[in-house]
Amino acid sequence: MFRLKIKKGHDINIAGKSAKEFLPTQNCNSVSLSPQSFRYIKPKLLVKEGDIVSLGDPIFYDKLNPEIKWPAIASGKISKIIYGERRSIQEIIFDIDKQQEQSLQEVAPKNLLSKEDITNYMVEKNIWPFIKQRPFNKVANPSDTPKSLIVSLANTAPLAIDHNFTLSEQKEYIISALKHLKQLTNGKLFVVIRPGEFEYLSELEYLNLIEIEGPHPAGNVGVVINHLEPINNKDVIWTVEGHHLPILGKMFSKGVFDPSVIINIAGPVVKKPGYIKTRLGSPVGIHCKDNLIKKEFRIISGNILTGNKIDMQGYLGFYDSSISIIEESFDRSFIGWLHPGGSSKYSVFNSYIGSNKEPYNFTTLQNGSNRAFVPVDAWEKVFPMDIYINSLARSIEANDIDEMEQLGIYECDEEDVALCSFVCPSKTDVGSIIRRGLDLIYFDA
Amino acid sequence: MSWAYPVWEATDTILFSTDKQTSSGPHIRDNMDIKRVMFSVVIALIPCYLFGAYNIGYLNALALEVSRSMIENFIFGMSYVLPI
Predict the structure, then answer these.
(1) pLDDT value for A358
(2) Most CB atoms within 10 A, among A140, A331, A362, A425?
(3) How far apart, in whole angstroms, are the C-alpha atoms of residue A60 and residue A81?
């Protein structure tokens, strides 16, 4: 076991943390799979509106890599396919037929011993999209040989789920998933945990456990990569979301695709934040209804730092494990820049009187206008990676690919710099800058 | 008239803070902004101004070989610093 102590970063003290209890399960009649959740793919549909599909059937494939197909996340009818600009597929909505799902039989796979066996099995069963890669944070390429594989079971983002609670009854499937995932790499399988959690994993010799301590973004895959497995333009590291491990484990051990997941609903405007047993791509409206205390709110699929804004009729993203809800406020405080502080202001900087010890009701206010970069060491204060983040952002703005590569852009992702955007006094969206840089390198290559 | 927007925006946000919303992640932001950073810079430099004013008066007294009290030195120095 390796202990990784992170000093830089910040745990945002936001109100509305989920209590460790389950809210009443709501029945979803429809779910959605959105190709927008997956980067750098050109989706080509294999079905059309009105088709009847079973769980796990191929729904669309990537034109750039046709062996990778995406599975149906429900059995039933494809009720609607929503297109966006230039016929881009926005959502594929399934009407769930529970009887059809219950009639599916388990067919346990045999002889999943080598990388080829497991890769072929995952591609054949259309569950390959559960594996992502760094750099670029996109669906991995099955023909690549990853340097290592990292699974983070310590989600340190604000209002994020506690994997130790949600995966407490899935021990058998987690072990099955990790055992098979290890075969996919000749390197190490790193599993990131918090101290005292997932103790049964320490008995597994094929894992490299990393105990992390410190504020967010200590639990991020990118931080582990930067500290333990630095990569350059030729290396690839694969990652899997922690809450997807039971899905993969059941597939490997029983041959059944069970899209059940446990997510949380949290935020300052949630009446009763808690955990929800639901399924991939579930609608958010059924979980938010009658559980909000404000009329103006923003629903976010994912955590509040990296998630996407959706409306009440929206659906949970494929890789997301949280529904975060904050108030939409349009308050304009009088001479706000001279405010002394107190409980109405939250800042990482020491320029407001009062501490951040009380949970704060954040809103969608940007709290300032957009300005040019002013390097006051704000980004460096919350960025624990050994990268000159300010210089990297400037090299991206200058479209200098060589400079970006030398500064370590391959180890970065939007989630790793989300705190930099949070603290930036110039209100710069550092994540979008990093994304622009990665897009430039990807399409240039 | 888009060139005048920064002027209008600076005047508008001196009295009332902006109601601009975040559009994508992160959806929440720190309460610190550049206006407050620059105000903090002004506050932080006040001791420097005060000592600098006294220093001008002190060095002037030293050069002219006259004797002045601290307050007289300070007033002398401020007469040069304030117009700046």
Answers:
(1) 87
(2) A362
(3) 12
**CA distance readout (Å), A154 to A31, A215, A258, A321:** 27, 11, 23, 13
Nearest CB neighbour to A351, from listed B25, B28, B36: B36
Q: What is the pLDDT of residues A24-82, one digit of tens each?
A: 988 889 999 999 999 999 999 999 999 999 999 999 999 999 999 999 999 999 999 99
SS3 of chain B: helix, strand, coil, percent, to 5 = 70, 0, 30
Neighbours of A106 (CB within 10 A): 9
Which among B13, B17, B30 is the nearest to A347, CB-wise?
B30
What is residue A111's predicted lDDT score, i.e. its pLDDT? Answer: 76
Residue B41 class from Cβ within 10 Å (0-12 exposed, 13-18 middle, 19+ buried)? exposed
Residue of B18, B29, B37 lying closest to A422 (CB–CB) = B29
User: Which two structure tokens, joined as six digits, stand for B30?
Assistant: 């720190």
Picking from A319, A263, A365, A52, the residue whose alpha carbon sits closest to that of residue B33 is: A365
Rg (CA), chain B: 21
Do B15 and A331 lie within an 8 Å CB cutoff? no
Structural element, H or E, at residue A95: strand A89-96
Indicate if the pLDDT at residue A293 is higher than 80.
yes
Residue of B nearest to A331 (CA): B19
H or E segment and range at residue B54: helix B34-64
Measured between CA atoms, how close is A63 to chain B, in angstroms? 28
Q: How far apart are CA A137 and CA A254, in angstroms?
A: 29
What ranges make up the beta strands (E) of A307-437?
308-310, 322-327
Number of H helices, E strands in chain A: 12, 19
pTM over 0.80: yes
Tell which residue, B23, B14, B38, has the closest CA to residue A333. Answer: B14
What pLDDT does A165 receive?
94
Selected residue of B17, B19, B39, B40 to mutate for chain A interface (largest A Cβ count, 10 A): B17
